[in-house]
């Protein structure tokens, strides 16, 4: 069992109907539970965070069907407003079509707009991809300078994270990049399985139930 599972968690609020009051409540809950970060939509920035709590912000979310220049500008603005980490969505259709050079160029544009020490996570929508495509996209993310590959937005009808996808992603990137599991991680057992498969970060919107082992939780 992982002792302090909260430290793996990006405590997430990405609902379209989220209000400033919802954001404040999410930040307060993250601080109470001791999560690694909060993950928010870019329009909710700027926010004030307690010391020690990181801020992750999504880019090109949730479809990934944005021009690279728009993703880059969105990431740069988020960083200027306090983001420590960027979670960007690839063009999943480009990946399905085998246009991995385009996927790499898209990621690289965001990386250049949000250079280190900003952490860049690349959402690949693994449930919508073949195993070969998962490997190729993870390779493209590494080549473009990403820090993480991430399974899912949690908004795609194909589904969210799976142990198989996390294992394959980890096998592909080794210790050079990290892996984030998000979407469908609803219990502590789910979370433990993802960590055992190689995930070093979890995206959860209902973190308390996972951390406290009390039942099902939402996962974006």
UniProtKB/TrEMBL annotation:
It is found in: Cytoplasm. Pathway: Carbohydrate degradation; 2-deoxy-D-ribose 1-phosphate degradation; D-glyceraldehyde 3-phosphate and acetaldehyde from 2-deoxy-alpha-D-ribose 1-phosphate: step 2/2. Its EC number is 4.1.2.4. Keywords: Cytoplasm, Lyase, Schiff base. The active site is at residues 87, 150, 180. It comes from the Bacteria. Its main location: cytoplasm. CDD domains: DeoC. Pfam families: DeoC (PF01791). It is an enzyme of class 4 (lyase). It catalyses: 2-deoxy-D-ribose 5-phosphate = D-glyceraldehyde 3-phosphate + acetaldehyde. Catalyzes a reversible aldol reaction between acetaldehyde and D-glyceraldehyde 3-phosphate to generate 2-deoxy-D-ribose 5-phosphate. Belongs to the DeoC/FbaB aldolase family. DeoC type 1 subfamily. This is Deoxyribose-phosphate aldolase. It comes from Microbacterium sediminicola.
């Amino acid at each position: 069992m992982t002792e302090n599972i909260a430290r793996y968690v990006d405590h997430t609020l990405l609902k379209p109907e989220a209000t400033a009051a919802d954001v404040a409540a999410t930040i307060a809950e993250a601080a109470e539970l001791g999560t690694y970060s909060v993950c928010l939509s870019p329009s909710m920035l700027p926010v004030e965070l307690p010391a020690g709590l990181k801020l992750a912000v999504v880019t090109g979310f949730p479809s990934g069907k944005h021009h690279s220049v728009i993703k880059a500008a969105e990431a740069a603005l988020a960083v200027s407003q306090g983001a420590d980490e960027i979670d960007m969505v690839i063009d999943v259709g480009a990946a399905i079509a085998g246009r991995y050079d385009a996927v790499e160029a898209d990621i690289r544009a965001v990386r250049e707009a949000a250079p280190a020490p900003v952490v860049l996570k690349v959402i690949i929508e693994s449930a919508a991809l073949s195993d070969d495509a998962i490997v190729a996209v993870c390779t493209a993310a590494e080549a473009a300078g990403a820090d993480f590959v991430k399974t899912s937005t949690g908004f795609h009808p194909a589904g969210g994270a799976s142990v198989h996808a996390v294992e394959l992603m980890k096998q592909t990137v080794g210790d050079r990049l990290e892996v984030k599991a998000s979407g469908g991680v609803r219990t502590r057992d789910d979370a433990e399985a993802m960590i055992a498969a190689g995930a070093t970060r979890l995206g959860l919107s209902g973190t308390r139930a996972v951390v406290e082992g009390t039942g099902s939780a939402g996962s974006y």
